[in-house]
Amino acid sequence: MDAVCYHAPRQLEIVTVPIPHINEDQVLIKVTRCGICGTDQHLAEGEFIGKFPLIPGHEIVGVISQIGAAVHGFSVGDRCVADNTILCEACFYCRRGQHVLCENFESLGVTMAGGFAGYVAIQSKKVYKITNLTDEEATLVEPASCAIHGLDKLNPAVGVEALIFGAGPTGIILAQLLKLNGAAKVVIAANKGIKTQIARQLEAGDEYIELDRDDPAPQWIKMKEDYKHGFDVVIEATGSEKVANDALGFVRRGGSLMVYGVYSNSDLVHWSPAKIFQDEIKIIGSFAQTHCFPRAVAYLDSGKIKVTDVFSIKDFDKALEKMKSKSACKVALKP
Ligand SMILES: [Zn+2]
Ligand SMILES: [Zn+2]
């Protein structure tokens, strides 16, 4: 099978490798689509937790093509998505039930061979069937699972007012999740472009602020005036160091700031501890997910959370270009 391989940071090649063999508790998935996300760009640069050489791709959608002897409940041809996380179940955190903090956290497409390939072997307990979603739409189940984990951690009270920075697939899903889980108002602030248009089309938020890419400063000032008391919940979902710095300024007294982007390892924030102390602000980190796939499939496959505009492409280089050009909300590779 053909696969995308990062031999080392910034060394990408299409390679031919054998189709993986499956163990008795695994299934073989023939990949039909695999989403590309910001994490893949960070991995390509040698950042985040990647291990090389690596076949990336962690937003895996496909059909079951082979079933291990001990697997029940699946048939060849079933359409499915795969939870890419692998947990050791034995470390300090796993034994405390804090699986997302696993000290030996492995992830298909991040630390082990993933879905930018013809086939993926995976334990059947990590595989979930889909019915209504198209293959393109289903690439958003993994990001939605991460967003659900984020919302679990945020645990917003009924009727909160929320501000989300970023209108990528994650921001759009987080906005809808907040609305479905009791937020009275969701404001999405993001750079002007196709993503904010899509957020509007999907009615992901209640209000939208389209920031000027070159000179957003006056708009930031206006936002401070328009939302004088800030927000109960502010989510930084752009991965921008600058926005992470500024986001704290929009948190209401007693509110929470969730840091939700993938940042460069060298990024730093400069926050006022006095504000955090006096305003009793909670800072929340949210990373990846475990065990959130069933809820993500339920929300997306039922259409309660809407996703759209996934752009499929066969050539990985062109897909990366398409993503960098910011002319699509979500780009997926079609092996
Ligand atoms: Zn991702
Ligand atoms: Zn563990």
What distinguishing features does this structure have?
335 residues; alpha/beta; Quinone Oxidoreductase, Chain A, domain 1; Rossmann fold; 2 domains; 7-stranded mixed beta sheet; 6-stranded parallel beta sheet; 17 strands; globular; binds zinc ion; oxidoreductase activity; GroES-like_sf
Brief characterization of the structure:
It holds the Pfam family ADH_zinc_N. This protein is of the alpha/beta class and 335 residues long.
Q: Any chance you could write out the topology, listing elements then pairs?
A:
Layout: E1 2-8, E2 11-16, E3 26-36, H1 38-44, E4 59-67, E5 79-82, E6 85-86, E7 106-107, E8 119-123, E9 127-129, H2 135-138, H3 141-154, E10 161-165, H4 169-180, E11 185-191, H5 194-201, E12 207-211, H6 217-226, E13 231-236, H7 241-247, E14 251-259, H8 273-278, E15 282-285, H9 293-301, E16 310-313, H10 316-324, E17 330-333
Parallel strand pairs: 10-11, 10-13, 11-12, 13-14, 14-15, 16-17
Antiparallel strand pairs: 1-2, 3-4, 3-8, 3-17, 4-5, 5-9, 6-7
Helix pairs in contact: 3-4, 3-9
One zinc ion binds at residues 87-88, 91, 93-94, 102-104.
